[in-house]
Amino acid sequence: MMKHNSRYITTAAMIAALYVVLTMIANALGLASQAIQLRFSEALTVLPYFTAAAVPGLAVGCLLSNVLAGGVIIDVIFGTIATLLGALGTYALRKYKYAAPLPPIIANTLIIPFVLKYGYHIDELWYSFLTVGAGELLSCGVLGLLLLTILQKYKKFLF
Predict the structure, then answer these.
(1) pTM value?
(2) pLDDT tens digits along 25-54
(3) How many CB atoms lie within 10 A of CB 10?
(4) Which of 26, 66, 85, 140 could make an S-S bridge to 76, C-beta 3.0–4.6 Å?
């Protein structure tokens, strides 16, 4: 039992750390501040397809990333909730490989435009729905599915 708990916690912590690092890289490259944000860390949202440890790992990684990036409190709270909901949805749909990126795409597309409106005072709500959705399609849909396909070959060794 202890070995399983240690592995679970370690896996979640590694995913959280990787999420933070990838977010900071995207921020440093200016990819996370454009109208359509390309966040490498969002590709990790497919990891609950492989392991339940990814759910808390992604949530903690998002929370830390938002705090370290200087996000407003509404972004820290609701951005983390969006990531958590997406991760839980991916875990719930883990039997369906190609559905893995859908929950984070949907959660972020529905929640983050309101964060942008009320946290950062970006008034073009419908524009935000389009741009956040496009960014999530690229990050979770394209990069996430690519990552999932690559990791599928090594899942016995990694998870």
Answers:
(1) 0.92
(2) 998 988 877 778 888 999 999 999 999 999
(3) 12
(4) 66
